[in-house]
Amino acid sequence: MFELEDTINLLCALIFLGGLRLTDRLDNLAFGVFLLRTAAVFLTNDVLFPVSYMPDQVGYVKCSMLWRGLDDGGWCVQRTSANVKTASAILGSFPLPFIISVRSLGLINIQLVVLFYLWLEQKRFLSPASKVFFLLYPSFALYSALAMRDTLIFIFMFFVLYQWFEGRWRWLALAWLWPLMLIKSQNALLAAVPILFQLVAGESRKRQIAATSVAFVGGIVGLLKLGMLDQLNKHRRSFYAEDGGIGSPPLLTADLSLPFSFLNGALGFLLNPLPWAAGMGFQFIQSLENIFMLGLCVVWWRRKALPHHVNNVVALKVFMVASFVLYGIVIFNYGTAARYRFPFVLLFILFADHMTEPRPKKVDAA
User: Fold this and answer.
1) Which residues have CB under 8 Å from 282's CB, separation 6+?
2) Cα gap 156→175, rounded to integer Å
3) Running DSSP on this structure, what letter comes out for residue 45?
4) With bands split at pLDDT 50, 70 and 90, how would you rate the model's confidence at 91?
5) d(CA 267, CA 213)
6) pLDDT score of 149 more than 80
7) Pairing with 243, which of 126, 154, 302, 307 sits 20 to 30 Å away (CA)?
8) Is there a contact between 334 and 115 (Cβ–Cβ < 8 Å)?
9) Per-residue pLDDT for 295 more than 50?
10) CA angle, residues 14, 20, 23, in degrees to nearest 5
11) Could you tell me the maximum CA-CA distance found in the chain, to the nearest angstrom?
12) pLDDT for res 52
């Protein structure tokens, strides 16, 4: 059974949700979904799978407890990195009464998602379609119910892009990059891609084309002449070993196969595992979700940008492609890929929906 402290935490979360519903801050759909997502905190770890299936969670719990003075710190200090400690401090600062288990941090993550949803609704950022996607995206629902930093990473990345694309307080985008850098430096660098792209390209279509060309040529030069290819291969070997791989993975080589390796990596990051390569259970469900997500991404990719967001949509697409390529060529484990992928898919759908025109409805001939 669950600890008394986690039961008290659950009651606090339910009172919070109930208050939001009674004051009409949440409609019936959102209230029902968040109830189910709260229940998911107690139906994942040690029910659907053991905590050891995603052992990173233990580090976040230990470091969050240390932040609150509830742990001697030995495990956290010796076994976790600085970014895990920082993310744990942020989670540990959330005003939930107790942190004693992975379920405690899972409840904190769900409350962060609820608060973020309220902000999106207050800003009228969501359309009916993106609202349903935000609430029901399966990978988002799963990983936000666990004791990890992925929810924080998504929220910080969102505000970097939001402040930049909205254009009123762009300096705040740089401010949001700072905490993101502290908890996931790779994602901070990727979130900076649309910023750098637009700083170079400006509002000119011709400059956008020139900036894309320069970035492409610069990337090739960096890979071939500045040792970036060696760094990518280093990360490939590291992730391969962490995921239990034996020996060494196929290394990237500076020949004609390199562009195909990037394309294969990007598609693999989005689609793997494919249904015929997936096992039963989670992997097969994940493979079906991946195909559905590909279809959604294609639909939103093809939508026409609103006049004042044309350049922003181009920058968003550059961000999406760069993220999928870079993660796709270093990640081998399907579960790790799903965890790293969902923030990018969610960000793309939310912003593409916000910055493009809805497809016109077909009118039947009279």
Assistant:
1) 49, 335
2) 10
3) B
4) very high
5) 22
6) yes
7) 154
8) no
9) yes
10) 135
11) 75
12) 86
Residues 311, 262 contacting (CB under 8 angstroms): no
- For residue 171 the two structure tokens come to 């300096």
**Cis link prior to 273 (omega < 30° from 0)?**
yes
Which residue type sits at 236? R
pLDDT of residue 218: 64
Phi, psi of 356 (to 5 degrees): -125, 165
Question: What is the pLDDT, as a whole number, of residue 203?
Answer: 67
- The residues, ordered by sequence, that sit 6+ positions from 259 with a Cβ below 8 Å of its Cβ are none
Listed residue (194, 144, 69, 121) closest to 350, CA to CA: 121
CA distances from 251 to 123, 220, 238, 259 (A): 46, 17, 12, 13
Which whole number is the average pLDDT over 79-106?
93
Check if the beta carbon of residue 114 is closer than 8 Å to that of residue 106. Answer: no
Type of residue at 217: V
Q: What share of the chain in percent tops pLDDT 90?
A: 55
Axis crossing angle, helix 102-122 with helix 28-43, rounded to the nearest 10: 160
Q: Which residues contact 183 (CB under 8 A, 6 or more apart)?
A: 83, 86, 87, 90, 149, 152, 153, 156
Number of Cα atoms under 13 Å in the Cβ half of residue 234: 5
Considering only CA atoms, which of 133, 108, 144 is closest in space to residue 30? 133
Q: What is the pLDDT of residues 102-128, one digit of tens each?
A: 999 999 999 999 999 999 999 999 999
Residue 202, sorted as left (phi over 0), alpha (psi -120 to 50) or beta, turns out to be left
The pTM (predicted TM-score) of the whole model is 0.91
How buried is residue 249: exposed, middle or buried, by Cβ count under 10 Å (0-12/13-18/19+)? middle
Non-local (6+) Cβ contacts of 142 within 8 A are: 40, 44
Provide the CB-side half-sphere exposure for 187 (13 A, CA). 29
- Residue 365: pLDDT band with limits 50, 70, 90: very low
Nearest to 355 by CA among 303, 320, 280: 303
Tokens of 109: 């993550």
Cα 362 to chain centroid distance, Å, stands at 34
